[in-house]
């Protein structure tokens, strides 16, 4: 399938600002569910089949009861701080490559759309990997501490700053990129699926009445919801692998993983194929509004309005 697109100017700065605003709003809305997703994905089944959380709702209830409202936002500071460059890179890179790959007659083949999405995913891991690594430690700290408490042990309270400093001291900058292979695999695959699907869905909707030729904002929001939830479920097995590889602290009895293949092998052997879809519903609920909000803000042109830039005909 080839998309027929009007040729347009590419304005970098407003797109970066739009991506940043969209990321902050989206993360602030869905972070508690992302925390639940992380804990479900890191949870391993004990030797007697025991597990701390039965499902998404049980995890949410136990986390809220043990750690309160603010406990649901553990790790949000580093995520909100880094989500601006992460979303800005992802959305801007995709738009940039789509602009470059569009032919002079305004056509963009599906293969070029997928390539643009894949390149956007590859660029974003520069920021995503350290962000995810630090966020996961903070999000999973409550689960590890709770299991340690049951075993009569005490786990030192973690902070993103302490974790980052320790990794930098012991392993240098490379320490912050633990799990980069799995992160890249997840993000490139997600972007290859998400961006072309979003573009196709977005093209089907009603257009604005101005001269931009863009879809109305609510259609961009719905397109982001649908495309984000599908892509999120599609790459959930890769997200489980990434999350487990990036967890620096394990509860007693939980297995360590040496790499992607080792993680896949051990997870399949001890927990079965369904383990790769742990937190899948949670991830869909997180990603759908995150990208719905992101695309709505991005296509509304909030930055252009704030900066007094008039959108031009493409």
TrEMBL record:
It is a multi-pass membrane protein. Solcar repeats lie at residues 10-100, 108-204, 215-304. Coiled coil: none annotated. Belongs to the mitochondrial carrier (TC 2.A.29) family. One of its GO terms (cellular component) is mitochondrial inner membrane. GO terms for biological process: malate-aspartate shuttle. It is found in: Mitochondrion inner membrane. It catalyses: L-glutamate(in) + H(+)(in) = L-glutamate(out) + H(+)(out). One of its GO terms (molecular function) is L-aspartate transmembrane transporter activity. This is Mitochondrial glutamate carrier 2.
């Amino acid at each position: 399938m080839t998309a027929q697109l009007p040729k347009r100017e590419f304005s970098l700065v407003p797109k970066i600002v739009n991506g940043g605003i969209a990321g902050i709003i989206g993360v602030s809305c869905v972070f508690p569910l992302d925390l639940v997703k992380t804990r479900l994905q890191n949870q391993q089944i004990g030797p007697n089949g025991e597990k701390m959380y039965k499902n998404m709702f049980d995890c949410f209830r136990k986390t809220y009861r043990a750690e309160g409202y603010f406990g649901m936002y553990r790790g949000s500071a580093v995520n909100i701080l880094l989500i601006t460059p992460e979303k800005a890179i992802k959305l801007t890179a995709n738009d940039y490559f789509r602009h470059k790959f569009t032919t002079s007659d305004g056509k963009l083949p599906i293969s070029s759309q997928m390539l643009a999405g894949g390149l956007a995913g590859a660029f974003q891991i520069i920021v995503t990997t350290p962000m995810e690594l630090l966020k996961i430690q903070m999000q999973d700290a409550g689960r590890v501490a709770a299991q340690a408490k049951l075993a009569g042990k005490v786990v030192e309270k973690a902070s993103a700053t302490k974790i980052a400093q320790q990794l930098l001291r012991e392993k240098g900058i490379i320490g912050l990129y633990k799990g980069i292979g799995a992160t890249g695999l997840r993000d490139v695959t997600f972007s290859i699926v998400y961006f072309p699907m979003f573009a196709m869905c977005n093209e089907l909707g009603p257009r604005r009445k101005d001269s931009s030729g863009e879809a109305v904002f609510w259609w961009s929001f719905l397109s982001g919801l649908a495309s984000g939830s599908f892509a999120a479920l599609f790459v959930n097995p890769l997200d489980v692998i990434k999350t487990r590889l990036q967890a620096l602290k394990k509860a007693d009895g939980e297995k360590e993983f040496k790499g992607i293949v080792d993680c896949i092998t051990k997870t399949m052997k001890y927990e079965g194929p369904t383990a790769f879809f742990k937190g899948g519903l949670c991830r869909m609920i997180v990603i759908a509004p995150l990208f719905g909000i992101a695309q709505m803000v991005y296509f509304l042109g909030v930055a252009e309005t704030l900066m007094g830039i008039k959108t031009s005909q493409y």
